[in-house]
Amino acid sequence: MQPTTPDKTSLPSSPISSEEKRDWISMINESVHTYDDIDIGDVYAVSRNFIVVKRGFVNVHYYYIPIKKVEGWDDNVLWLKITEEEVKEKYERDTIPDPNQYFVKEYPYYTGFTSYNYPLPIIVRRYPEAYEDVTKSSPEKNVPRIYKCDLCEESFDSEDELDKHMDIAKH
Ligand SMILES: [Zn+2]
User: Fold this and answer.
1) Is position 73 within any domain?
2) Number of domains present in the structure of the chain
3) What is the pTM of this model?
4) 82 alpha carbon to ligand 1 midpoint, in Å?
5) 5 CA distance to ligand 1 centroid (A)?
6) Domain hosting residue 149, numbered range
7) pLDDT tens digits along 12-35
8) Predicted confidence (pLDDT) per residue in 39-57, tens digit
C-alpha cells in the first residue's frame, strides 16, 4: 500500500507573470529598445537614477540612461524616450557599474531602493507621445556615501543630491 502524500504542491498555477514586473530591479536582463525601435541591449544594473544597459559581448558598451528617459515597460520590452543616436552620443561610458551605487545582478548590494522616488512606468503598449514627466522627490537621506554621476563625474554626498543633479543637469 502506498501512503498518499498530502498534496503540498497545490501552488496556484501562475497564469501570466505580468503582475510581477513592477519594479526597476525586475528589469535586470530585460531588453531595452530606443524610441526608434533599436534593441540596444539588456538591463545590466539599476539605481534610483539610472538604468545601465550592457551591449555586446566582445566589445562591451555601457549606456547610463537616466531613469526619466525611460518611457516604460510594456510587459516585453523596456522602452526609452530617446533614439539610439542620442544614447550613443550622450550616455555611453566605459565605466563598469559600481555595485555600491547600482543594483547589479551578480552583486546585489545596492540598498537605495528602499523608497525610490520614481516608479517604473508600466505601459500597455508603446505610445511615444504620451509620456508624462513626473518629477516627484521624497525627502529622505540616510546613506553616508559619495554618489557619483557616471555621466559627468560629479560627486554628491547623498543620493538625494544626485537626484537633484539629475533634475538640473538635463542629461
Ligand atoms: Zn551628471
Assistant:
1) yes
2) 1
3) 0.68
4) 18
5) 60
6) 22-169
7) 444 444 455 578 999 999 999 999
8) 999 999 999 999 999 999 8
